[in-house]
Amino acid sequence: MADQALDVIGFGNAIVDVLAKCDAAFLDQFGIPKGGMILIDEAQAKEIYDRMAPGVEVSGGSNANAIACIASLGGRGGFVGKVASDALGDIFRHDLRAMGVEYETAPLTDGPETGRCLINVTPDAERSMATFLGAAGYVTNADVDENQIARGEISFFEGYLFEQPDARAAFVRACELARKHGKRTALTLSDAGCVERQFEEIVPFVRNHIDILLCNAAEAAAIFGSDDLAEIAPKARDLASLTAITRSARGSVLIPGEGSPVDVPAQAPEALEDTTGAGDAYAAGLLLGLARGYELGRAGALGALAASEVISHFGARPAQSLEDLAREAGLV
Amino acid sequence: MADQALDVIGFGNAIVDVLAKCDAAFLDQFGIPKGGMILIDEAQAKEIYDRMAPGVEVSGGSNANAIACIASLGGRGGFVGKVASDALGDIFRHDLRAMGVEYETAPLTDGPETGRCLINVTPDAERSMATFLGAAGYVTNADVDENQIARGEISFFEGYLFEQPDARAAFVRACELARKHGKRTALTLSDAGCVERQFEEIVPFVRNHIDILLCNAAEAAAIFGSDDLAEIAPKARDLASLTAITRSARGSVLIPGEGSPVDVPAQAPEALEDTTGAGDAYAAGLLLGLARGYELGRAGALGALAASEVISHFGARPAQSLEDLAREAGLV
Predict the structure, then answer these.
(1) Minimum-distance CB partner of B87 among A86, A96, A99
(2) Which of A138, A192, A327, B198 has the lowest tally of Cβ within 10 angstroms?
(3) Would you say residue A52 lies in a domain?
(4) A86–B91 CB contact, under 8 Å
(5) Using N-to-C axis directions, what is the helix angle for A217-224 and A229-239, rounded to 10°?
(6) Average pLDDT value over all residues in chain A
(7) Could you tell me if residue A36 is inside a domain?
């Protein structure tokens, strides 16, 4: 593995999802915003889990889900993220490696358990998340491997994890190494609240270190202070050499540093089941296309195709080979 | 909890299922019989898991699935089974308690990890199982609680776990306590191979200790040496005061110690998705009905209703309230 070229290396939260049904009152009781995400500590995680319905466990994590999509698209993916030396950590590692992802981050041996996201699903099929980061927050410079970064076309960072000071330092270090080796960097803003909480830190980070910025409309509004594309475009060009803004069923728009924005239509899913993971899947297709040197429209279409598959079933990782779908669509 | 009357107390393997897709060659490679179950050790579990596709984790165990159905039917269930002090053990315990099941067995603190069943699903949707019992096999007399047994109408034992000598001794002890307190006992034969391997031990156990014997047609043939109901009936009457034989879509037949056999029609599912857990769900309905003093046909119909729900979706535990369904059907 250690001399293999990689398309995309992801840096993100290593998390196992716990999914269970609930009613709206349950969310109110624990202050979980409907359709949103809050961070909780170990005691809160125990309290909420004790009251949750029987669940199903499945590997998750925003960035890790994107890297799983990279692998499903036939790309070569790497992942950097922290689990503990426990059963959930073993499951997380297995599920990435089973897809052919290079994942060598040493587990945390003296600290909290593997992180988990308690996902409560209301009868309207909406998912509301309470995340106990656990070991996931303990990414440090020691987890950054120059050899790996030198082999990766694009290093891709998760905004959620940027909130942890040690992880933030590790992101900066990884970006410096990517630059040193002539490689590109990408960041997803993850969540509008995440942008608002760390606005002063994230803007210079993007300006100084990030080539490709990914966000949805709400996150774009949070970082650019506008939801008008004409106002956003010059600000985006000032910040990154490419900005991708996803707009759900209205498709995405790609704003390059020079030249006109490119509109990418959304691809309608066979059936809309669960939108969780749509942004991660889109990021995977776009970044894999860019890593392979596709022109913007084709790279965006690969993102739209991946997102379309992931929202057609429950669960944030692909249920069938994205590479097969992309081949049928003539995109790879 | 400790003074609550219970309808059914289950004694079985405390297991977490790991489900993943595979092709037929994968099963051949590891000698896993298609549609069947083999026991594996920790090294084999690691070897098979390392090669498995990404998976989903969900609480399982034959008897524990039945007790989950008891709870879903509105019954009061208890469970006795052994997990380790680890994350999978916490998940197993949570999922039973979240349904209101009384589950107080002390976890194993010095021994193997929580048991798991590696379930590989071939493209024809058939499930083939390789079970690493781990802590589940460590049930002993110390886990038998006379107070709990005295509160339970029926103590229900899993044939799979009967293969462990210490658990077998615990089963005998629990049966003696049930008898002492005027309560009934039930056993599922679990698997034809399981009957064949321990024929000399299981026949006297049933004759001396078990009131209600549950089996499918293959297990009935293994223990009674015939698949002809006319030949089976007198042998069944000799062995137990009630024998229930399930025959998939042909329904079940109940053979009481005295009187004529009662035919119970199967209830067709809305859609047949996954037959895993059908026998456990049937057992739950039947035993809950018997615990409540229903006549045989009504108790059997409650079993058929529970089985029908469980086979209409993926997963061996009910996806909706069995009590609601039973109420609509006029069975409770």
Answers:
(1) A86
(2) A327
(3) no
(4) no
(5) 70
(6) 96
(7) no
For position B109, what pLDDT does the model report? Answer: 94
> Please, which pLDDT band fits residue A274 given cuts at 50, 70 and 90?
confident
Coil, strand, or helix at residue B55? coil
Residue B56 contacts A, CB cutoff 8 Å: yes
Residue A86 contacts B, CB cutoff 8 Å: yes
From A15's Cα to the closest Cα of chain B, the distance in A is 14
CATH code for position A266: 3.40.1190.20
Q: Confirm if B78 and B178 have CB atoms less than 8 A apart.
A: no
Rounded-to-integer distance, Cα A123 and Cα A73, Å:
32
Question: Which residues from chain B sit within 8 angstroms of residue A57, using beta carbons?
Answer: 56-58, 91
pLDDT at B298: 98
CA distance B239 to chain A (A): 38
How far, in Å, CA of B53 to CA of B119, rounded?
A: 11
Q: Searching chain B, which residue's CA lies closest to the CA of residue A57?
A: B57
Neighboring chain A residues of B317 at a CB cutoff of 8 Å: 54
pLDDT score for B273: 83
Cβ contact A269:A313 at 8 Å: no
Residue B200 within any structural domain of the chain: yes
DSSP letter at A34 equals T
Among candidates B58, B88, B98 on the partner chain, residue whose Cβ is nearest the Cβ of A53: B98
The shortest C-alpha distance from A101 to chain B (Å) reads 11
pLDDT at A60: 97
Judged by a CB distance cut-off of 8 A, whether residue A85 touches chain B is: no
Below-50 pLDDT ranges, chain B: none
Q: Which domain holds residue A71?
A: 6-13+61-112+135-322
Res. A125: pLDDT tops 70: yes
Q: What is the mean pLDDT of residues A243-252?
A: 96
Residue A240: partners with Cβ closer than 8 Å, 6 or more residues away: A206, A207, A210, A211, A212, A213, A257
Question: What CA–CA distance (Å, rounded) separates B102 from B96?
Answer: 8
Q: Does residue B332 sit within a domain?
A: no
CB contact under 8 A, B94 and A52: yes
Min Cα–Cα distance to chain B from A168, Å: 29
Residue A134 has pLDDT above 90, yes or no: yes
Contacts of B99 in chain A (CB under 8 A): 54
Return the number of other C-beta atoms located less than 10 Å from residue B17's C-beta.
Answer: 24
Q: What's the number of domains chain A is made of?
A: 1
